[in-house]
Write a structure and sequence with these properties.
two-stranded antiparallel ribbon, ten-stranded antiparallel beta sheet, binds zinc ion, alpha+beta
Length: 316
């Protein structure tokens, strides 16, 4: 290495010379190294930063995409929520309609249940009650056996229209033209079909449930035979004027284990005034009878609900 370095700088004013000693040369070299390292660090940092910016841009794009799909998902969820809410509203409305209807039915049936009772319990009570009514009104005579007929003679002691003697009238007379159709006032079986021109004339008797019978006298014609099963409302014969009769009419009797009852209460009886008969006809142990029907009906209801459960099981 040279001992000294001489640097000449020429200008218009002449030339100047700088002499660099060993120490100065070393300092200059160090400064050079420093500048080089600093430049490298700066370039490295710049490259790193550029890279970082690119990465951040990609990340931002990704996040934007994610945010968009999440807001779409949120819209779907909100739609679902509002659908579910309106569905729930509709169900609540329907349930309250059912509850109201059930309340009306309970009123009609005269069933008093706690309004806080479960709907299922209330439905069971109403179902049993209405099933009992249907069973009783199917099995026991109720309503008129002839349509729109005037009642011409009531049940009770009266002067006989033919003999003129005071006698017990064991039935109810309807003033009807010859040939008026007569309908069964309950389900039953035809016990007697007896043609005759004496006394009761052509005579028909039906057996119903629980020891009740109904009979029809002075008929013109029969529409059923002994042993036939009939449903409530079936045509059983036509009214007439046969036997000991002062004019065309139907003599209608209802008996319970052979004892004659006033048919008027039974003619007036129906679904709308189901409990009327309990007050009007005191010779029957109604509570016991209703109890028996209730037992049978609730067993049948149970059986049918079990059958439904079995059907559901086997179908699934
Ligand atoms: Zn009569």
């Amino acid at each position: 290495m040279k001992e000294r370095i001489t640097i000449s700088v020429s200008s218009v004013n002449g030339s100047r010379q700088f002499h660099l000693g060993r120490k100065s040369q070393k300092r200059l070299r160090l400064a050079g190294y420093f500048v080089l390292v600093a430049s490298l660090v700066t370039v490295g940092a710049m490259l790193y930063l550029v890279n970082e910016v690119d990465f951040a841009k990609v990340k931002q794009e990704e996040l934007e995409k994610q945010s968009y799909s999440m807001s779409e998902e949120l819209d779907v969820l909100n739609q679902l929520k509002s659908d579910l809410e309106s569905d729930l509203d509709e169900r609540e409305t329907r349930l309250s309609t059912v509850s109201d209807r059930l309340g009306e039915l309970e009123n009609l049936l005269g069933v008093s249940t706690d309004n806080d009772a479960r709907l299922e319990t209330r439905l069971d009570v109403a179902a049993i009650n209405s099933a009992v009514r249907i069973a009783v009104l199917d099995g026991l005579p109720n309503g008129s056996p002839v349509k729109n007929a005037r009642r011409s003679s009531q049940f009770g002691v009266r002067k006989h229209p033919v003999s003129g003697k005071k006698r017990m009238h064991r039935g109810l007379d309807f003033a009807v033209n010859i040939g008026t159709p007569i309908y069964a006032p309950a389900d039953g079986v035809v016990e007697t079909v007896r043609p005759s021109n004496k006394g009761s004339g052509n005579f028909l008797r039906l057996q119903h449930s629980f020891g009740f019978t109904s009979s029809y006298s002075h008929l013109k014609k029969f529409a059923v035979r002994s042993g036939d099963f009939v449903n409530k409302g079936d045509l059983i014969g036509y009214s007439g004027n046969s036997g000991l009769s002062s004019g065309p009419h139907l003599h209608y009797e209802i008996r319970f284990v052979g004892r004659a009852l006033d048919p008027s209460s039974f003619v007036d009886w129906g679904m709308d005034n189901f409990e009327l008969i309990f007050e009007k006809e005191r010779k029957i142990k109604w509570a016991s009878l209703i109890n028996k029907v209730e037992q049978r009906v609730s067993m049948q209801l149970q059986l049918s609900s079990q059958r439904d459960a079995i059907l559901l099981e086997s179908s699934s």
